[in-house]
Amino acid sequence: MIENKKAHKFGMVIDLDKCTGCGACMVSCMSENNVPFKEDESNKKDSITWMRVYKLTNGKSFPETEIAYLPRPCQHCGGIGDHGHSPCVSVCPATATDYGYDTGIVSQIYTRCFGCRYCMGACPYHARYFNWWDPKWPEGMENYLSPNVSPRMRGVVEKCSFCYHRYQLARERAMVEGREIEEMEYQTACTTACPAGAIVFGDLNNPAHKVHQIVKPDPHPDPMNHKVVGKSRNPNVFRLLERLGTNPKVYYMSEREWVRKAGDNYLKGEWENVKTHHGASSSHG
Amino acid sequence: MKIDRRSFLGLGLGAAAGIALSPVGVKLTDDSSIWTQNWPWTPVPEDGKITYDRSVCSLCPGACGISVRKINGRPVKIEGLVDHPINNGGVCPHGISGLQYLYDPARIKTPLKRNGNKFEKISWDEAISLVAQKLGEIRKNGAPESLGLITGGGSGSMAHLFDRFMGAFGSPNTYTMPSLESNLALTAAALHSADQSLGFDLDHSDFILSFGAGIIEGWGSPVACIQANASRRERKAKLVQVDYRLSNTANAADKIIAVNPGTEADLALGLCAVLLAKKQISTNTRYGDVNKFPFAAMLGKEYTPEKVAAITGVKAADIEALAMAFIEAKAPVAVPGKGRGDTGSLREFTAVQALNALAGRLNKKGGVFVMWPAGYLSFPENVMDAVAEQGAGKAKLAGSVNELADKLEKDGGLSALFIYNANPCYALNAPEKIKAAMDKVGFKVSFSSFMDETALRSDVILPASIFLERLEDVVSGAGLAKTVVGLCRPMVKPVFDTKHPGDALILLAQAMGAGMAQSFAWESYAACLEDVTEKIWDNLSGDGYVVIDDKPPVGTPATDFTFLVSAPKAALSNGEGEYTLVPVDKMRLASGSMTSSPFAVKTVPDTVLSGKYSVVEINPATAGVLKDGDIAFLKTAMGTAKVKIGFNEGILPGVIGMPRGLGHAFNNPYVAGKGVNVNDLIGPVIEPGSGLDAAFGIKASLSKA
User: Fold this and answer.
1) Residue B262, pLDDT above cutoff 90
2) d(Cα B445, Cα B165) in Å, to the nearest integer?
3) Do A27 and B599 touch (CB under 8 A)?
4) Chain B partners of A46 at a C-beta cutoff of 8 Å?
5) B587 touches chain A (CB under 8 A)
6) Which of A52, B157, B212, B348 could form a disulfide linkage to B265, CB 3.0–4.6 angstroms apart?
7) Which pLDDT score is estimated for B36?
8) Does residue B692 carry a pLDDT above 70?
9) How near does any CA of chain B get to the CA of A222, in Å?
10) Is B93 part of the contact surface with chain A (CB cutoff 8 Å)?
11) Min Cα–Cα distance to chain B from A132, Å
């Protein structure tokens, strides 16, 4: 029952200067979402990690070397112009993945998926994973599985859902009590686990939410690139491959210029133009 | 009937119409879609009422509060407990994986007895009477001191209960595995007073000088330390990291001081010397009550910036600048303990603490707290019978667990050994030596929950319930500047036929009768806990934790520099080779006696573990003919291992960094049989005066495989 209310647009901002790369978000995600594990997980191409922490380096030699960790959940893209045509949603022949206009969350329905993997090819962020095998838990370990997320089977694609089941629980509670969902009521498992407090999650459409206050998303399309909507007006905040116009709802934040530059591929000299082009809409007031 | 063209077409059309109209086709399509959408082998977790229960994680000494989500009483998720005084909602990857330990394939499911090369299942009654009988014989022979105990340390009621057992039995031979806590306790004992420990007030310091401490990589109470680091920017607090590689902590630091591995103590003493020479010593402190002048003389003579520069590789001018930056900060603190802080020499720990003492940072906000034990436990007097009295007077066999292993290997000395919360056959350097030493002990009783390297070598196993199945008081320590007692509560009934080790100990003491039974006259461990924590039990059981103290202790403790003046020799890496191999702690890998969970191992990047290979970090500048990704033989005086080469710009040239916590050898395919145990390659170097294994690194060579 979607009433004529302003839709939510859930998103997060991750402070890469606070992230220590400890991996708590990855484990919290796996435990929350019944993600299985295999005997050998060192081949990262077939290792299912809805949340994956990448290591970035500035490429300089010691002692100028610097590293940064970049946690990468599903980016929950709004697609070009933020109209809900996410790269993966547009290519799915089974409507197994869809864009939630009331939440901005990109869903994945495992029983509809027949494993064509077009979405994996379409995703610029490698956020989607294919189940090459049926999940297998050591004897007895199935006892810890959560009923809120169905375990997947061989032959389907899975990915981060922004812990949608947590949204459902919070929404039901709020609905029964006849009120709106509160900011802290719906938080993803990675956000709550992070010991460094590097992840902030909330409604990007709600100016009262911390994520909105940090990101300050620009409501207007980028005048330089009309595909891009919701660009941050905070000079330290960026999105991955932002210029593609996928319009992710996961933002990153760093005071370090080389880290911000690592968020996209730039031709020689291009970065100098881009780095000053934050908050382009300041001309809009 | 003749089949002509007309009837053939008629029949054909009729059949086609019949098939099209019959439900069979639709039914078959429908069925096939149902069958292909049916995955009966995929588990369907049972749904039910959601509840949350509070407890404390005791996987490491961090003592974080946890919230366990349950469905119809079945635990499904562990999260950090919001508003807990230690971790305030945060949690580490190992704590979240707690439920995987519950159903771990390597868990010991019943009491076991060794029979030749195999274990056979026995009942608890049999197990207790078997151990009681063996121990009874030892006492009857009048050699109670020949019972040894190796534990993982700690200071809660379980540690006291084991001490009590050893006391009532009549043996002084209790040994603790090296840990940050044991190292800090030894440091306090050497410099200040026995029974004290050190807490570092990182939350309020504005200048943290870390001597290799992996502040965001598992040092101390890991979540509390990560939070202290995360708040640094808002507090405008600086972190200066002394390190030989770009650890995550070094990367997060404002400044990195690159030192040769193993020379941290020299740098700390060099800083002390600068402070003395520049008359920057705090005047309002009672530093150096004992041997202050010989210490000052030693510093002035042997630790001039030039001399220290030659040893550590840090420029003399940088040493002076660092010392001045430290003393000029408002609330500086120097933090010892490389990596997780469970390795290193007492010289290194005391040198860093001496710097804190000279700078007047003892018992100051944002400095180091010299703390007394929590003191909330009140055990009744131990009943000592004649045998106990006789054994209690005997001297300990050795000063440390490493010395004990040496002694046992050479000439034995113990007839029975208890092992609780410890996996020495994996966690100590040169585990093969430790195994050989263990084999010299006739009767080994393990209280392990998992069939790990040490449990595999025991004679009887009294399997312990894990923290999610037991009630226990958990005291913070681990270098925290506050003392919090948390209550670990059973979140689930024991999954297997295991017991609380406290209950096992009580049963055992009662089976032994006489004085021992009187010392353990409780009905159960639960009754014992309520009895001995009487002072705080109401709050502890009500709130789940009690903050004993979180303020700086009053007064300034005296500092005794005798140990440092005795100039204990720095342990040099032994053996030959062009490289120095050092162990590297990674947050995502548990090390020491704790094993990583399948989830934790899954998060380990392929630059640390690649298939069956440990990946070693090496600076490309000194890699010679080796290329990134090559398989190579890594050779030290202790052994050879096949490893994968991983180029890393962020490590000092000539140093090889190898991850700790890999190379387990027991039956859990998800976490064991992966990579190399770095301890296999490093030989212990016992530090005179402390008995600590001061080996940090060893000379090594590399050749392409």
Assistant:
1) no
2) 14
3) yes
4) none
5) yes
6) B348
7) 67
8) yes
9) 32
10) yes
11) 14
| Contact residues on chain B for A142, CB-CB shorter than 8 A | 43, 45
CA angle centred on B475, ends B472 and B480, rounded to 5°? 155
pLDDT at B571 exceeding the cut of 80: no
Asked if A40's CB is within 8 angstroms of B90's CB, the reply is no
The residue in chain A having the minimum alpha-carbon distance to the alpha carbon of residue B671 is: A39
Which of A30, A39, A193 comes nearest B669 by C-beta? A39
**CA-to-CA separations, B336 to B213, B222, B333, B401, in angstroms, rounded:** 6, 15, 10, 21
Cβ of B518 under 8 Å from any chain A Cβ? no
Mean per-residue pLDDT, B648-670: 91
Q: What single-letter DSSP state applies at residue B428?
A: S
Instruction: Give the model's pLDDT for residue B492.
Output: 94
More confident residue, A28 or B577: A28
CB atoms under 10 Å from CB of B233, counted, come to 12
CB contact under 8 A, B42 and A134: yes
Which of A67, A145, A193 is facing B246, going by the closest CB pair? A67
Task: Flag if B246 and A44 touch (Cβ within 8 Å).
Answer: no
Full-model pTM: 0.91
Residue A278 has pLDDT above 70, yes or no: no
Q: Is B341 left (phi over 0), alpha (psi -120 to 50) or beta?
A: left
Closest to B223 in 3D by CA, of B592, B467, B480: B480
Find the length of chain A.
285
Q: What is the pLDDT of residue B570?
A: 57
What is chain A's alpha carbon radius of gyration, rounded to the nearest angstrom?
19
Interface test with A, best of B42, B231, B603 (most A CBs within 10 A): B603
Contact yes or no for A212/A41 (Cβ under 8 A): no
Query: Is residue B425's pLDDT more than 60?
Result: yes
**Are residues B601 and A41, on separate chains, in Cβ contact within 8 Å?**
yes
Q: Rounded to whole angstroms, how far apart are CA atoms B673 and B675?
A: 7
Most B CBs within 10 A among A27, A55, A192, A236, hence the mutation to make, goes to A27
What are the chain B neighbours of A20 within 8 Å (beta carbons)? 216-217, 226, 229-230, 248, 252, 587
Predicted confidence band of residue A285 (pLDDT cuts 50, 70, 90): very low
CA dihedral B567, B696, B667, B669 (to 10 degrees): 150
- The answer to whether residue B609 neighbours chain A at the CB level (below 8 Å) is yes
Other CB atoms within 10 A of residue A60 CB: 12
pLDDT 10s digits, B159-215: 999 999 999 999 999 999 999 999 999 999 999 988 899 999 999 999 999 999 999
Structure tokens at B628: 């990134």
Q: B275-314 as b/e, with b when 16 or more CB fall inside 10 Å?
A: bbbeebbbeebebbeebbeebbebbeeebbbebbbebbbb
Q: What is the DSSP letter of B574?
A: P
The CA-atom distances, in angstroms, between B372 and each of A13, A239, B201 are: 43, 50, 15
Residue the block writes with tokens 């430290």:
B326
List alpha helices for chain A, DSSP H. 24-32, 87-91, 118-122, 164-176, 189-193, 210-215, 257-261, 270-275
Q: Is the minimum CB–CB distance between B602 and chain A shorter than 8 Å?
A: yes
Chain-chain contact of A60 with B39 (C-beta, under 8 angstroms):
no
Rg from Cα positions in chain B = 29
Tell me the sheet residues that pair with B174. Answer: B149
Dihedral sign, Cα of residue B19, residue B24, residue B26, residue B31: negative
State the average pLDDT for chain B.
90
Look up residue B562 and give its two tokens. Answer: 């005798």
The number of residues in chain B equals 705
CB contacts of B45 in chain A (<8 Å) are 34, 142, 145-147, 151
Q: What is the pLDDT of residue B276?
A: 87
